[in-house]
Specification:
The protein has about 300 residues and is of the alpha+beta class. It contains nine helices and 16 strands.
Length: about 300
């Protein structure tokens, strides 16, 4: 039985030109000409140490006795030093999805950092906007990136959108103990462009991993609740976000972010540092330029 590509024992990537073959109940790597000629031999093969039947990085980590991202144990005073607090927003527009986020990271009532990047790419067509514990969020994003790439390389095809969503749900559910302790909470907004339908899709989550798809917008973080009414006001007075141009939608969403900064101490404004702003289209993920952001803020 032949399998696809993966990793060689030295950690290098095996190209699709090589094949995996089972010999005497052992999985080995053989070059195609040896297989075609029937001359497959021990000196033409190397041991293949990964399970060719599974594309799950979580299963691999478990086999190697390496844990998935897990909550940190309770430490007295940890609630006071965890770095968190933010507002992240995703809205649809006529050609895709816009994601924006403030750059402030807080610990308690202290501002720890004002240049945090909270809108991160998971792959070429998927953005995740992170809220909650910044350290836990970065750990989860790093894990998801490796998971998607491992699946693609081991199974010779990208992970499906449904698979990506389930993997994110599993990570959030695995983090429930830390969230219940008040440390390490991680609440994302996931945006992806579905190339099969040509439409952008937005998902938001609760702390237990519950997943919800929204038709217009998604928001998370400490500043998201105060501006919920403003979203509905825009929809009723200016129409759906999905019918707006990129420039108009960016202007509206940055206004919402500024309102959140006025109403929430953990959300940074745009006066000192410009918000993180990206958008997804059928061509992939793009960054807004500083000039575009300043124009949308009325500072051009």
């Amino acid at each position: 039985m032949f399998k696809g590509c993966g990793f060689a024992p030295d950690g290098s990537f095996i190209s699709p030109a090589h094949c995996i073959i089972a010999v005497n109940n052992q999985t080995k790597l053989a070059v195609p000409d040896a297989i075609a000629s029937g001359a497959f031999s021990e000196n033409r093969s190397v041991m293949f140490i990964l399970n060719p039947h599974s594309g799950s990085l979580a299963d691999l980590l478990e086999q190697e006795r390496l844990p998935m991202p897990a909550p940190v144990p309770h430490v007295p005073g940890a609630r006071d030093v965890d770095t968190h607090g933010t507002t992240v927003i995703a809205v649809k527009y006529k050609d895709g999805i816009i994601n924006v986020a403030d750059r402030r990271a807080t610990a308690g009532y202290s501002v720890m950092y004002d240049q945090a990047e909270k809108v991160l790419a998971l792959d070429d067509y998927t953005l995740i906007s992170i809220s909650g514990s910044f350290a836990k969020s970065v750990e989860v994003v790093r894990y998801l990136r490796h998971t998607f790439k491992y699946f693609e390389r081991s199974q010779l095809q990208p992970m499906s959108q449904e698979g990506k969503l389930m993997e994110l749900q599993r990570v959030i559910a695995n983090n429930v103990p830390a969230a219940l302790q008040g440390i390490g909470a991680f609440i994302p907004v996931l945006s992806t462009f579905d190339r099969e339908t040509g439409l952008g899709r937005i998902y938001f989550y609760d702390v237990l991993g519950g997943q919800f798809e929204t038709a217009e917008y998604g928001a998370a973080g400490s500043g998201s609740a105060p501006i919920k009414g403003a979203f509905e006001y825009i929809l009723k007075t200016k129409g759906p976000f999905r019918d707006m141009s990129r420039e108009v939608a960016l202007q509206e969403v940055l206004t919402l972010l500024d309102i959140a900064a006025d109403l929430d101490t953990a959300t940074g404004g745009s006066s000192k540092f410009l918000p993180a702003s990206k958008y997804i289209t059928a061509d992939g993920i793009h960054d807004f330029t500083d000039d575009e952001i300043k124009t949308a803020l009325g500072r051009a």
